[in-house]
Amino acid sequence: MALSSAAAAEKETTQVFLSNGQLEYVGLLDEAANQRLFALYDSLPIKPTVLSIRSPGGEVYTGMQLGNWVREHKLDVQVLEFCFSSCANYVFPAGIHKIVSNFAVIGYHGGSGDPKHLAFDEATQKMYDAMSPVEQKALMDDIHKTSLADGQREAHYLQQLGVRTDISSLGQAEQYASLLKQNPDTAGWTYTLEDFALLGVRDITVINPPWKPGAAMKRMVVVTIQVEQQATPKQ
After folding, report:
1. In sequence order, which residues have a C-beta less than 8 Å from that of residue 43 and are 6 or more positions away?
2. Whose CB among 27, 34, 140, 234 lies 3.0–4.6 Å from 10's, allowing a Cys bridge?
């Protein structure tokens, strides 16, 4: 999956620190940043109870690692600006309680096991175009095999949290296609408080409601989609 230039820039500047008694995680989800966060927490005599995060996402396993750690340490997750992609998929729902500002974006753009989630960067696309048809098929077969494994691991992770496994891919269904195509700058989709609850993500508190995701962000467009009710998995 190709990173946007903004996300690529954040990869070099992911920050982990303590502020006002809260853990802060700012930037792309990153293995080294995760380890710094874990070490910081272990070093503190008074353990923080809140992880405040601003992230465009990151690698699937890194997101699950951070989410598992959040749940294991019974932390709340706070989002004052945005939590996108793997941050929304794995970190946000792992919080015992979730706190969002009234303009915070919890954004989704596709599940790890869905082929639509795949995008080549420019260099990879050139390499792919130069391959023979046999080589292209072998590469795609390998990618789809890996994608399937990622999807299975994601489903298991979400089921453990009691979250519906389609939370990260629901917006790719045909009935939402026209909504997402109405604005070419659409970065993905999000849900209302009520629909997050239907998906199994509960205990969300909005600071100074009502919640209007992206209201204060000029370049981040997200569509709020409606969720059809169905049974959520048992925890």
Report:
1. none
2. 27
List C-alpha distances in Å: 210 to 63, 113, 159, 193, 214. 28, 33, 29, 10, 12
Short-list 121, 122, 93, 119, CA closest to 106: 93
Q: How do the pLDDT tens digits run along the chain, 235 residues long?
A: 333 444 444 446 899 999 999 999 999 999 999 999 999 999 999 999 999 999 999 989 999 999 999 999 999 999 999 999 999 999 999 999 999 999 999 999 876 645 444 444 555 566 657 767 776 666 555 555 555 566 788 999 999 999 999 999 898 888 887 777 777 778 889 999 999 999 999 999 999 999 999 876 666 678 899 998 764 444 4
- Homologous superfamily (CATH) of 5-224 is 2-enoyl-CoA Hydratase; Chain A, domain 1 (3.90.226.10)
Bridge-based pairing state of the strands 221-224 and 82-84 = unpaired
**Measured distance CA(228)–CA(205) in Å, rounded:** 22
How far apart, in whole angstroms, are the C-alpha atoms of residue 156 and residue 163?
A: 10
Question: Do 136 and 128 touch, CB atoms closer than 8 A?
Answer: yes
